[in-house]
Each structure stands twice: as C-alpha cells, then as structure tokens.
Amino acid sequence: MYKIAVLPGDGTGPEVVAEGLKVLEAVSESAGFAMDFTRYDLGGERYMRTGEILPDSVIEELRGYDAIYLGAIGHPDVKPGILEKGLLLRLRFELDLYINLRPVKLYPGVDTPLKDKGPKEIDFVVVRENTEGQYAGAGGFLRKGTPDEIAIQESISTRKGVERCLRYAFQYTQKRNKDKKLTLCGKTNVLTYAFDLWERAFHEVGQKDFPDITRDYAHVDATVMWMVKNPEWFDVIVTENMFGDIITDLGAMIQGGMGIAAGGNINPEGVSMFEPIGGSAPKYTGLSVVNPLAAIGAAAMMLETLGEDKAASRVENSVIHVCQSHLKSLAAGKMGYNTQEVGDLVVKSL
Ligand code: IPM
Ligand code: MN
C-alpha cells in the first residue's frame, strides 16, 4: 500500500490529475499493489479564500507520504511569484527535492517540429539541479522605487549541492546505459565562479567514481542550438537550476509539446514529487481539452521511483500506444478526444 499525497493545484491541474489517478488505480489493481490517495486543496483558490499558501503542518504531513502527485500551480488572479515561490519552490526546498528529472523522449507517431528527426534522435534526459542557483532567492533591492535603485539577484552554487546533483546524474547515466555519456551544460566562459565549481566537481567526481561514463561539456547557448540541430548527440544532460528550467521547455517542444512532457522533483533519500511540466493553462480550464498524457507520464515516473517498474512501463507503453494509434495531435483541443476520453484510452490499453 503506497500513501500518495495529491495536489491537483490550479487551472487544468485537477483535470489532468484526475486522469492520472484513474490510470494509477487501474494499473495498481491488476499489478497487485494498492494506492491510498490523500488530496490537498493547495493553490490559488485556497490562497484567495483563506490567505494560506502552504501551512507548515502540511509540509510536515507531506514528509510522511511515499510520493507526491502534483497538477499545476499558477492562478491568473494571483500576482506571479506568490504561488510559485510560496508553494512549488517552497516544496522543492523544504522537502529537499534536489533533482528535477526531465526526460525528453519523442514517442513514435508523435509530431516534432524538428525536420528529419524522429524517436531515434530525440531521446535524452535532463537532470536539473532543483534547489540552488538563482532560485535560492538570494539578493534584494537597494533604494527601491528611486532613480538610483539597485536589484541584485544572486546565484548560489554550493559544492555539496552541486556534487550531489552530479553524482545523481552520473548514476542515472550508468543506469540508463544508452551511450554512457553525461554532458555538463554550463557557461564557463562568462559565469566563471559558479561553473568553475561545477566543472571541477564534474571532472573530479567523474574521474574518480564514474570512469566508465564519458564526460562532455557544452555551453548553454550551444546546448539549445544542438538540441534543435543534433539532439541525438545527447544522452544525459546535467545542469544548474535556471538553465535546466529554460532548456527543458525547449525539450518539451521537441518531444511533442507540453501535453506530453513529464518530470519528477526527486529527493533520492526521501519523498519525491511528480508533475506534468506545463503550467495551469488558465485559458483551457474547465473545457476538458488539455492533454492528460503528461500527467499520466508523471504518474509512470512516480511508479518507477516507487520501485514498481513493471507497472511503470505498462503505463508508459499505454501512453505510447495512445499517441501512436489514437490521438490526432497532442495539442489541447486538437486530440480528437477530450481529456477524460484520453485517460480512458490509456486505461483501456493497459
Ligand atoms: C518549472 C516551472 C517553475 C520553475 C515555475 C512555475 C516556478 O517553470 O517547473 O519548470 O521555474 O521551476
Ligand atoms: Mn519551467
């Protein structure tokens, strides 16, 4: 019996999470394990109603689950930054979800905007550091609102934070066993402090503990160029928080869009949180037009992390089948089915 905390969140989050839960219920039943879901109504609605974003008591409760399943955070009536920082980022920091794992995999039959590239070429994983960099929130204002105002937004890289992320990435590359190549994505030519640390740690850890993994380096600007031109060059990419945020939106686009892109916020020693990487899509809320496959893919990643590998691959294979044999497009409103029907198709092909 797995205890799962469910945070449907804002906008279309609840719609896609409902489909993920449907699939989890179906697959667990036939795989011989059970899942107990506890819902939390965190998000923009609750914030506007009560002023509460994420009570400390909820954080303590969340530590006691086997995993967390999240829909989306972000509400059009709440100023940008409040929910993102108060809820999503706070969860990442408080639960020390120091890895953001984002596979970029083009499934057969899915359209990519990249000409002449297919599933063989688009199949890599981004390991994004998830608790440091500019996201740590260091900085502030001086003389705010005056002509002399100064805004400082600092980037934090700790040896410990960088090294644990690198170790995870090396191990992941080993386990993935594809090209056994790990690319550090950085900016050593300009960010000469942060990426000096990253680069030294990368080679030290790699040389000493992962000699079987080929070490590769690319500047972030070159990385996005190659993600478009030669995505087949990548096996696993490891990078800092902000770069990882940016390059994984590009990753989502080349794998077929936000409707399919899933990710995990992982604490390898604790509880992890899984989510579709797209946002709350306010303009589609309540219309049953968004694609739940990203949320279902996130559920598959959750199963894998829980050690239910067989159930995880059954879900992933069903997603692949539905992409290939049913959906007209992965885009919202263009699937040929509504959100619930897509969930049903996945359940049926389990
Ligand atoms: C993501 C999102 C978040 C981030 C936002 C919502 C704070 O874009 O998960 O990639 O920047 O990490
Ligand atoms: Mn993002």
How are the elements arranged and paired?
Blueprint lengths: L1 E8 L3 H19 L3 E5 L4 H7 L5 H7 L4 E6 L9 H13 L4 E7 L17 E7 L9 E4 L7 E4 L5 H18 L4 E6 L7 H16 L4 E6 H10 L6 E4 L1 H14 L7 E5 L5 E5 L16 H13 L3 H17 L13 H11 L1
Parallel strand pairs: 1-2, 1-3, 3-12, 5-10, 8-9, 8-10
Antiparallel strand pairs: 4-5, 4-11, 6-7, 11-12
Helix pairs in contact: 1-9, 1-10, 1-11, 5-6, 7-8, 9-10, 10-11
Would you give an account of this structure?
The chain has 2 domains: 1-98 and 263-350, Isopropylmalate Dehydrogenase (3-Layer(aba) Sandwich), CATH 3.40.718; 112-255, Isopropylmalate Dehydrogenase, CATH 3.40.718. By secondary structure, the chain is of the alpha/beta class. It is globular and about 50 Å long. The mean pLDDT is 97. The protein contains 11 helices and 12 strands. The chain has helices spanning 13-31, 44-50, 56-62, 82-94, 159-176, 194-209, 220-229, 241-254, 293-305, 309-325, 339-349, and strands spanning 2-9, 35-39, 67-72, 99-105, 123-129, 139-142, 150-153, 181-186, 214-219, 236-239, 262-266, 272-276. Helices cover 41% and strands 19% of the residues. The strands form 2 sheets. Strands 2-1-3-12-11-4-5-10-8-9 form a 10-stranded mixed β-sheet, sandwiched between helices. α1 crosses α9 (293-305) and α1 (13-31) packs across α10. Bound molecules: 3-isopropylmalic acid and manganese (II) ion. 3-isopropylmalic acid binds next to α4.
